[in-house]
């Protein structure tokens, strides 16, 4: 339950990121993992999953009345996705910056969407939009036993 996870602040903040079916098809998984790793964030959860309609509906519940919702459901269930949890200082906000804007056309080069896609309906990646959303999404996609705490031996080279 995400009620246990509300202590995630500072260096322990966590976010949920998913490489969507187009990102998996287009072999972008390694590139995306690489960007988060090299930034200095800590990987605490990772798996390849075929999302159920129920899970996707809950994940995108706020968008249920949008005209593109049905298309979004079929896009997201069209193939496996890679879900991950990253930990670090301000990781929610920083991950959103690394992703770029929802519409790839508005995304700057250097961002994931700005480098790898062109249309909003195939924007290759998801990232939580707030700490509260991250907590909900992590508990929706991951079991407690799938999130791993490990001692970061390069911590002193990443944090002052
Ligand atoms: P995000 O947080 O940047 O992913 O954007 P939203 O939460 O607003 O929307 C979730 C996802 O729905 C987006 O990443 C797109 O895959 C999709 N989406 C949002 N707006 C549109 C739209 O206008 N058209 C289509 N086809 N898909 C959209
Ligand atoms: Mg969103």
Automatic annotation (TrEMBL):
It is found in: Cell projection, Lamellipodium; Cell projection, Ruffle; Cytoplasm; Nucleus. GO terms for molecular function: ATP binding; metal ion binding; nucleoside diphosphate kinase activity. This is Nucleoside diphosphate kinase. InterPro entries: NDK-like_dom (IPR034907), NDK-like_dom_sf (IPR036850), Nucleoside_diP_kinase (IPR001564), Nucleoside_diP_kinase_AS (IPR023005). Pfam families: NDK. It comes from Liparis tanakae (Tanaka's snailfish). Belongs to the NDK family. GO terms for cellular component: cytoplasm; lamellipodium; nucleus; ruffle. The gene is NME3.
